Amino acid sequence: MLAEFKPFSLFRGTNLRLRDPVIVAALNAELADRLEPIHVDASLDAPLRTPQSDLDAAIKHAQLGVRNALLEFISTMDPTAFEWLVRALLLRLGYRDVVVTKRSNDGRIDLRAMLVAGGITNLHTAIQVKRTKRVGRPVIQQLRGSLSVHESGLLITSGVIGDLAEDDATHNERQPIALIDGQHFVDFLIANGIGISEKRYSIYQPNTKDLTLEHLQEISELDF
């Protein structure tokens, strides 16, 4: 029955996962009248839940919801507003002279900025923004073709960047193009406090040191 199952030609053990439906069906039919169910307490495999673990899980769930909501919003926002959002982020990241180009003569360049590296080198950067679901290789090629000799390229999108586009952008024989996809863009926004508001909650825990006799005897009227 198992002669065609290749792992058994190499291993003697039987603790292998059988994925072939024909073999599984044949084994089940052969053993149908001999199998006895094993009752397993599901709680043994479940991780121990504590108030802290529940709190951590709730925080992670809330943060994920914020990221998804923010990404959904920027994916449908006005294209011009998206360009100005990128400008606000670049300013927070330390870029200077960030200018949104005029649509009539932008040459596929939506913003231009300067990044001072270590107080020594001024990196002139041409930025193209794409409020789209997916960026393909032609976009990278068009951006590279629009760069001047002294400019570096940066592409920021609210969507994903295709594999071919990423390969072209990082090709070691071509002028490199820096890439920021939607997920990383949202991470930058959150890290720099753009498009979000912060809420703080108080978490209480017992402090029995305040309840000792010595401490209680030391309390004066001024403490209240």
Task: Walk me through the structure.
The mean pLDDT is 83. The strands form 2 sheets. A 5-stranded mixed beta sheet has the order 1-2-3-5-7, with helices on both faces. It has a two-stranded parallel sheet with strand order 4-6. 39% of the residues lie in helices and 17% in strands. With 224 residues, it is an alpha/beta fold. The protein has a domain at 78-191: Trna Endonuclease, Chain: A, domain 1 (3-Layer(aba) Sandwich), CATH 3.40.1350.10. Strand 2 (111-117) and strand 3 form a beta hairpin.
Tell me the span between the first and last alpha carbons: 82 Å
Percent of residues in helices comes to 25-40%
Task: Indicate the radius of gyration in whole angstroms.
Answer: 30 Å
Biggest beta sheet attributes: 5 strands, mixed
Shape estimate: flat
Keywords:
224 residues; alpha/beta; Trna Endonuclease, Chain: A, domain 1; five-stranded mixed beta sheet; two-stranded parallel sheet
A few lines on this structure:
The chain has 224 residues and is α/β, with parallel strands linked by helices. Helices cover 39% and strands 17% of the residues. Helix 3 (51-76) crosses helix 7 and helix 5 runs parallel beside helix 6 (163-169).
